[in-house]
Design a protein that fits this description.
Helix content is 76%, strand content 1%. It has 19 helices and two strands. A two-stranded antiparallel ribbon has the order 1-2. Helix 4 runs parallel beside helix 11, helix 5 packs antiparallel against helix 6 and helix 6 crosses helix 16. The longest helix is centred in the last third of the chain and has 37 residues.
């Protein structure tokens, strides 16, 4: 256990831990399908542009708040605003991340169960069997709930070990393993007969599909993929050392996140096209479509299909875990510093709160579908509440706070590490945070609501 406030012990630890917070299930089940359906490489180019316009400036702005204050998100905004109402931006991020942790753990628990089911050979069968297996499991009143809570407990036991010995150590282990598994699966998928169709679906540039709607999809993908608005970036940055290059770190994290998303597409689509399956997105892709795809694609060598299935769900578990670790840490840091609790007790408070949310969200999409709010299952309600309102609001306020409220010299000092870096892009960054990012976030908010 660490004594006092922790910090990351290496530059690679900073990048891997923060990239781990960004890399998650959305990289696998949302980005590839969205890219393939909306112009392939043309969409990816637009997406990269959105990362540069919104993603990197947004990340750096939250880094500045966290590292300057060296405190949890609530305290960080309080310190920099001198007790003004801006401090509630930090509370908003903590609330948002806790809700997300609760319902995200439900799906992460499904991944964990499917990993064990793959090892036991329980999801081998035809397409109808695989579909019925998922329906039966997800509607069970007990099993999915227990797996979700188990996932939060696994996250808890990483968090209680502290920043350097828990979060950083886990990230240094999980991220390389995740990347190696992904590369192996990409190679296996791309070597299948007929795989070229899947590669073309993802990477062939079709500029005729580009439209204002597609560009807004790319903007939204860039926003949600990088953990903006959750207070995660602010919290992790509070553990950065003063010589961490914020702009370089944000750029490296964006590159890793994008690379894993593209590689995920190269893992999924060649295998799907090789057996003539039309890939979709969301939970149905990874729990219904892909188990069937792997069985058909590797039917000539069943043992290889067995290993591929295990590796795939291990990859998902690791991707989900790096995300839940970051979300758990936000609340843990808050309870530790604001209520002066030992880290272990703070972690238990966050685990219990997230666990309660997880239980009710799991039941709402399973055995107790009448657990609803405003006509949505509790899980869908939490998803919509955070994605449509809380995340855009939190990110918008963070950009306005850094761009317009914090003294310009403070922002410059953090951007340039007190003058140690030349900071030639500071003017570009400040313009992006003040003008470009708020406009982009407003467009995302309106697009999520179906207004534009």
């Amino acid at each position: 256990m660490e004594v006092g406030r922790g910090s990351f012990g290496s530059k690679i630890g900073v990048v891997l831990a923060t990239a781990g917070s960004a890399v998650g299930l959305g990289n696998v089940w949302r980005f590839p399908y969205t890219a393939g359906e909306n112009g392939g490489a043309a969409f990816i180019l637009i997406y990269i542009g959105c990362i540069m316009l919104l993603g990197i400036p947004g990340m750096v702005s939250e880094f500045i708040v966290g590292r300057h204050a060296q405190a949890n998100a609530a305290k960080a905004y309080d310190v920099l605003s001198n007790g003004r109402p801006w401090k509630f931006v930090g509370y908003l991020g903590i609330l948002t991340s806790t809700i997300i942790l609760g319902f995200y753990a439900v799906v992460a628990g499904w991944c964990l169960q499917y990993l064990f089911a793959s090892i036991a050979g329980q999801i081998n069968g035809d397409a109808e069997y695989v579909k019925n297996y998922f329906v039966s499991f997800s509607s069970d009143p007990l099993k999915p709930t227990l797996w979700g809570v188990a996932f939060i407990l696994i996250t808890h036991f990483v968090i209680v070990r502290g920043v350097r010995h828990g979060i950083e150590k886990a990230s240094k282990l999980l991220m390389p393993i995740l990347f190696i598994l992904l590369l192996i699966l990409v190679v296996a998928s791309c070597m299948l007969p007929g795989a070229l169709g899947g590669i073309r679906f993802l990477l062939h540039p079709d500029f005729s599909k580009l439209s204002s709607s597609v560009m807004l999809e790319a903007l939204g993908q860039a926003f949600f993929s990088l953990s903006l608005g959750t207070a995660c970036l602010c919290t992790y940055a509070s553990y950065f050392t003063k010589d961490t290059n914020l702009l370089r770190s944000a750029s490296q994290i964006a590159v890793i996140d994008t690379l894993i998303a593209v590689l995920s597409g190269l893992m999924i689509f060649p295998a799907a096209f090789s057996v003539g399956v039309n890939p979709d997105s969301g939970p149905s892709l990874i729990f219904i479509t892909l188990p069937n795809v792997f069985q058909q694609a590797f039917s000539a060598i069943p043992a290889l299909g067995y290993v591929v299935s295990i590796m795939f769900y291990a990859l998902l578990v690791f991707a989900a875990l790096t995300s839940t670790i970051s979300m758990h840490e936000i609340g843990t840091a808050f309870f530790t510093e604001e209520f002066e609790l030992p880290r272990k007790k703070s972690a238990w408070v966050q685990t219990i709160v997230a666990g309660i949310i997880c239980v009710f969200c799991s039941l709402s999409v399973g055995a107790y579908s009448d657990l609803q709010l405003m006509g949505f299952s509790l899980m869908d309600f939490c998803d919509r509440l955070t994605a449509n309102f809380l995340l855009p609001l939190g990110a918008m306020l963070a950009c306005l706070f850094v761009g317009w409220y914090i003294p310009k010299q403070v922002v410059r000092d953090e951007f340039t590490n007190e003058g140690a870096l030349r900071g030639r892009l500071f003017g570009v960054f400040l313009f992006a945070v003040r003008i470009v990012c708020p406009i982009c976030i407003t467009l995302i908010f309106l697009h999520q609501l179906g207004i534009v």
